[in-house]
Structure formats: C-alpha cells, structure tokens
Design a protein that fits this description.
Layout: H1 3-6, E1 11-18, H2 28-42, E2 45-53, H3 63-74, E3 79-82, H4 85-88, H5 92-103, E4 108-111, E5 116-118, H6 124-157, E6 170-176, E7 182-191, H7 195-211, H8 215-224, H9 238-246, E8 253-256, E9 259-262, H10 271-281, E10 302-303, E11 312-314, E12 317-320, E13 327-330, E14 332-335, E15 348-349, H11 350-364, H12 368-415, H13 421-448, H14 452-465, H15 467-473, H16 476-486, E16 487-493, E17 496-501, H17 505-513, H18 525-540
Parallel strand pairs: 1-2, 1-3, 3-4, 10-16
Antiparallel strand pairs: 4-5, 6-7, 8-9, 11-14, 12-13, 14-15, 16-17
Helix pairs in contact: 6-14, 7-8, 7-10, 8-9, 12-13, 12-14
C-alpha cells in the first residue's frame, strides 16, 4: 500500500477550474463527477469543491485560486484534487509553490484523469516528469497566445486596431445582421455612442490648436466649461489630456507589436485641427509623440524594489562623437518609476544586461555524457512505471473477462427462470456500470504507457546541451526568446540583473553542481541506484 494511503487524514478538496472565458474542454460538473468516483475508489473524504473560473496563465492574477488553497490548508485538507495537471496551473510559479507544500508533507497532489499522485516520498523522476508536464502546459498556452497574436496581427494589417481598450471618444460597435439586429459576434471601431465623451476630446484638441494651451490649462478650462461627463469626473486629469494630444489613434494610426499601422477607423477630430496641434508641438520636447521604438529587453525586466516592481523602460541616449561629429545611439534601460519610489534613477547599458543574463546559459549548459547519465536514470524510472501500468492493464483485462462471464451466467439464470426479469435487468445494469469503470481504467493505463514524456525530456536535454552554441549564434531577438524559455522573474536590481531558472532547467542546474549525484564508476547497479536515491532524497527534503 502506498504511504499516502496509510495517512489517517483523508480530507480532500477538488479544485475545479475553467478558463476565464469558460472555454475549458472539461466543465465544473464533469470534474466534480470524476472527483467523486476517484475519492470513493481511494477512500478519500471529499469535503468541498472550489469552483474557479479564471485564467491560470499568471500566478499574480489567480486571486480566487490562492484563496481556495489558503482555505484548504487552514481547514487541514491534505489531499488536493485536480482533474488534470493543466487544471492546476499553466504557469511555473504555482507549480513550484505546490511542490514546496508537497515536500514539506503538507499536501498530496492528485491528478484524477492521469491517475497520478505526487507525495513527499515520490521518486525524483515523478517530480521531474511533473516539471516537464508543467513546461508542456505553459508551452501549450504560449502556442495558443501565438495563434491569437497571428489573428490579431492579421486584423491590424486589415486596418482595424485589435486591442480591447480604445482611446477616449471611440468604442467597439457590434456588427448588425441583414435584418438590422445585433450580431452575436464581430465588432468594428467607431465613434463612442456617448456624444459627451466625443465632444470632450474634440474640445481638448481645439484648445490646443487655437490657443496653444498646456495640458494642465486645457484640463482646467474643460472643467470650468463643464464638459467632463459624470463617469469621468474622478479620473479626469491633465496627464490624460497630454497623452491624448499625442496619441496617434486620433491621426488615423495605431501601434501594434511595436509597428505603426494605418487605421480604417473614422477620425473624430477635424484634420485642420490635427495639423494645428501637430505644428504647436514642433520644437517642443514636451509635445513630441511617444517614442515607440523598443529595445531587446523591453517588456522583459521589472524593477527589483518590492515597493516598485514596475516595468523597465527602454531609453536610448544619443551622443555625439567628437572626432567625426556623428550622432550615435546607445541603448539604456531604467525603471519607469510610475509609483515614484525612486528619488534618482539608475540608467543601465544594454551590454551590461547581456553580460548578467549570459550566466543563465552557463548554468544550464551540460555535456553530452552528463545528459546521458540523466537520461539513463529517467529511462530506468520510465521502464518501471510502464511495467506497472502494463500490469494494471492486464489486471483490468481480467476484470472485464470476469464481468463477461457473469453476464453469461446471469442470462442463463434468466433463461432457466431462476431469477425474474426485474432482477435480471437490475443486476445487468450493475455489471454494465462495472464494465464501463474497468474499460475506462484500462484505456487510461494504456495511455500512461506512452513515451511522449520521455520525448519531451529528450528535447529539454538537447536544449541544455546546445545552450552555448544557440546563444553564441543567435540574434538579439533569438537570445531574448531563449531567455524567456529558460528564465523567469527577471528583475533589474540597481545596475545588476536577477533571475530564476524555470523548471526543469533549475533542476538540471542543481544536478550539474551536485558532484555526488554523478556515478563513481561502480560496477554494482544496486550501489549506483542507492547513490542516486540518496542524492534525490536530499534534493527533495526526504528523510
């Protein structure tokens, strides 16, 4: 009997998650039904179900999920049930948090459809396969996002801004069918049906064009004239005015993925007014349009100060070379400081960031012999797991044969009038339910025998072996994409960069520096396995 089954605490909670837009393939109801069957099979006391409808993409956005986890721990729930691993998380932060709870022996994780259990004394191979599973879930989300970006880019190329939040004065207008009714899907961009919001923006541009007022004075005049709609009274400020006066959307353009597109949306500001506003800004740093050029690390780094944690801004410096008079651009980064935490800003050259980030490549770069040792160990664990699943499949097959024999006997009893038809139907229904149960278990056992996990492990090891060559040969864009695959929580701390390696690369890096993990050349395979298990026990905090 597994150790986790012997524990007296049988309290369990199901975490039934649908995506934020309820697009999950498995509903809350189905997950509950399967959880009840699973709990009954293993004697668990399913005390509650947490129904969660939110995205699992980012840990910081999962407020309801975290509240449910905290409540489960407070209530002394030991067994956390998930329909599948992707219902638990599609980010590596939550995966790591739950792993710590497992290692500390606070919880046991159950993946119902996959028939997998992760507990304190699970093998290192089980933890590693979970890391791979988590990476695959995150990659699946990444590919979905990529497809969405492709669709939105196509929309941008057609002249329609693909973002949800439009500048003041514009709104998404639902398409209409041939009979004049609102269509269920599809929108175009047009002027806001609320004419007061449109008039507000038009007046802001008029005051700049005709009287050359500053954003502060425009905001004051607008308030005096009483043009601010009630819904905007609390949020209306001169900063919003300054942003709108420079926003390319009002000129019939929009920015998507760092590229400027010509839009098909209607202009709500007269072109003569727009020209006058543009002229009013010429020669003034204050009114120049936002620099949309991005650096290699734009949208990658955040400020390390816990009171700030804002995005790092790309701010290149233009310097004049005295000997030639040539103007040269040097890439620099700084904290956006939108929360006004820093009294002074530190400007960090891009070359310095590259130097710090290259250490991530060094830490995961492994040799081919070392990768082979890891693969051999995991292959051995996979073979044992496959053997166990094959044994289960054979057992389920025998159960199905036994049920068929019982059905034949039941029919014979009906024919011989030993039992009546009502009893026959009742027992036949019970046997068919039992048949369905063992058929499902047999299918799952066959699925578990698949080698897809080891194929993914092989890809991870190949990526680690070729880390150096990929880094040295890659373009800046390719290097950044590589870092996104390998690193997380990338922070700019003053003039230095901090980061964390993602799973399973963090495990590989730790294995690389643990010399005692490596075989010492003993011919006795039992001694070799003991050393591996000894290292794994220390790694996962086991006794």
């Amino acid at each position: 009997m597994e150790e986790w089954l012997k524990h007296p605490n049988k309290k369990a909670r199901l975490f039934a998650r649908e995506s934020k837009k309820a697009e999950g393939k498995v509903s809350h109801a189905v997950q509950e039904e399967k959880a009840l069957e699973y709990a009954k099979q293993f004697g668990l006391d399913l005390t509650a179900t947490s129904k969660i409808s939110e995205s699992a993409k980012r840990s910081s956005d999962r407020r309801k999920y975290q509240e449910a986890i905290d409540q489960a721990l407070k209530d002394g729930v030991r067994h956390l049930l998930f329909y599948m691993s992707d219902r638990e998380a599609r980010n590596l932060t939550d995966v790591e948090k739950n792993e710590i709870l497992v290692i500390e022996d606070k919880v046991v994780l159950h993946y119902i459809a996959q028939h997998k259990v992760l507990h304190r004394r699970s093998s290192p191979a089980d933890f590693f396969f979970r890391d791979i599973d988590a990476v695959m879930n995150k990659q699946s989300l990444r590919l979905h996002t990529l497809r969405m970006v492709d669709v939105m880019t196509q929309k941008a190329e057609q002249g329609w801004c693909p973002v949800n939040h439009l500048p003041l004065g514009y709104a998404h207008i639902k398409n209409r069918t041939s009979d004049g009714r609102e269509a269920k899907r599809g929108t175009t961009i047009g002027r806001d049906p609320d004419s007061s919001r449109v008039r507000l923006v038009q007046r802001e541009f008029e005051l700049r064009a005709k009287e050359n007022l500053s954003a502060e004075n425009i905001a004051k005049r607008i308030k005096v004239e009483g043009l601010v709609p009630p819904s905007l009274v609390r949020s209306y400020s001169w900063k919003g005015v300054a942003k709108r006066l420079r926003h390319p959307f009002y000129w019939g353009k929009f920015i998507w993925q760092g590229r400027e597109y010509k839009g098909k949306h209607e202009l709500i500001i007269d072109r003569r007014i727009l020209s006058a506003v543009e002229v009013s800004f010429q020669g003034s740093n204050r009114g120049r349009r936002i620099n949309i050029k991005q650096g290699a690390f734009s949208d990658v780094l955040r400020c390390a100060n816990p009171e700030c944690q804002r995005a790092i801004t790309y701010e290149p410096k233009i310097k004049k070379i005295k000997s030639t008079g040539e103007l040269k651009e040097y890439p620099y980064y700084r904290c956006s400081n939108s929360r006004k935490v820093h009294n002074s800003l530190t400007y960090v050259p891009e070359s310095q960031i590259w130097t710090h980030m290259s250490s991530a490549v060094d830490s995961i770069s492994i040799t081919e012999p070392f990768a082979q040792r890891i693969a051999d160990f995991l292959n051995e664990a996979q073979i044992r797991a496959k053997a166990a699943h094959q044994a289960d499949a054979q057992s389920y097959k025998k159960d199905l044969q036994r049920i068929e024999e019982k059905e034949d006997q039941l029919y014979q009893q009906l024919s011989a009038q030993v039992i009546d038809e009502t009893t026959y139907k009742r027992q036949l229904d019970r046997l068919r339910q039992e048949r369905s149960h063992y058929t499902e278990l047999s299918c799952k056992a066959q699925e578990a025998i698949s080698d897809v996990v080891m194929v993914t492990v092989k890809k991870v090891l190949e990526l680690a072996m070729s880390a150096k060559s990929l880094w040295n040969m890659g373009t800046p864009e390719e290097k950044v994409e590589y870092l996104k695959m390998v690193c997380s929580n990338q922070l700019l701390d003053g003039a230095s960069v901090r980061y964390e390696l993602k799973k399973p690369f963090a495990t590989l890096a730790e294995m690389k520096i643990k010399e005692e993990w490596r075989p010492q050349g003993d011919s006795n395979p039992c001694i070799h396995r003991e050393r591996v298990v000894s290292w794994a026990s220390r790694r996962w905090g086991q006794d």
